[in-house]
Specification:
alpha/beta; four-stranded mixed sheet; 83 residues; 2 helices; single chain; 29% helix
Length: 83
């Protein structure tokens, strides 16, 4: 999970280099590197719990999601994910 005000492009490059078959990249609106203390902390907490508990996030084991300013998750247009 990366806040939109963090080094998004650099973080996405690292994500692409990870060879794991199960990985989901999440971009979070209105958040920075300090998301844990910001308004969007709930999205971070909920996503972390879901990933650790279910080994998937919003039904995906691989792909990209985005979180809007209200904390709602959605698929990134054009992203390929496995359900």
């Amino acid at each position: 999970m990366v806040g939109e005000y963090d080094r998004l492009k650099e973080r996405h490059t690292v994500y692409e280099q990870i060879s794991s078959a199960e990985k989901v990249f999440v971009t979070v609106a209105c958040a920075s590197h300090f998301m844990v203390w910001e308004k969007q902390r709930r999205a971070l907490q909920d996503a972390s719990l879901e990933w650790l508990r279910d080994r998937r996030l919003k039904g995906l084991t691989r792909g990209e999601l985005q979180v809007d300013a209200d904390g709602k998750f959605s698929s990134v247009t054009g992203a390929r994910g496995e359900r």
